[in-house]
Amino acid sequence: MVKQPSSFEMLPKDAYIIKIMDVKTETNKDGKGQHLKIAFDIAEGEYKDFYKKQYDNNTNEDKKWSFDAVYRLNVPNDTTPEWMAQQFFTFLANVEESNKNYTFNGDETKLKGKVVGGLFYIEQSEYNGNIYDHTRLRWTRPADDVRNKKYGKLPKDKLIDGAKKTVALGGDSEKFMDIPAGVEEDSIPF
Predict the structure, then answer these.
(1) Which residue, 15, 52, 61, 133, has fewest beta-carbon neighbours within 10 Å?
(2) Residues with Cβ < 8 Å from 19, sequence gap 6 or more?
(3) What is the pTM of this model?
(4) How far is the CA of 167 from the CAs of 60, 102, 128, 177, in angstroms?
(5) Tell me: the pLDDT tens digits for 116-145?
């Protein structure tokens, strides 16, 4: 049975096949380079269309695509650290391997509709003294590696030191979180 997420249900930490819903190139906040802003959703399995269902069930006038369903990837330039450039090219290689007859040609808009494997972790944030858990995409793998459970370990969680109170719990919890207005960033639909 497929779970029907409420507006604020949290995706369990795991590995998933994701589908790229939209991509846009943005200038970094420091003005020194660019990144790809990649909106995605779960493409297969029990949590298929997880973020779309959240979006559709949101009754707010200014509803937005979930911040947790947006992956930012720095576009390498002359000053990009090697590990960051490697992350970018690994992402592209994983997308190419996951989509038969696809080769990245420099046009990021052609990534829309492609699938790739994603490894997720829990990342905490703090707002008004409360700690919030978010399930975030950390790394990508070829889709078949995720389907066949050949992706290694899931990424280590990024928790706030000394966190005492968590508003939203991860895993299979049925608890929900209420994200205060203004916390979410711009997201799809772009």
Answers:
(1) 61
(2) 40, 41, 42, 43, 113, 114, 115
(3) 0.79
(4) 21, 42, 11, 6
(5) 999 999 999 988 888 889 999 999 999 999
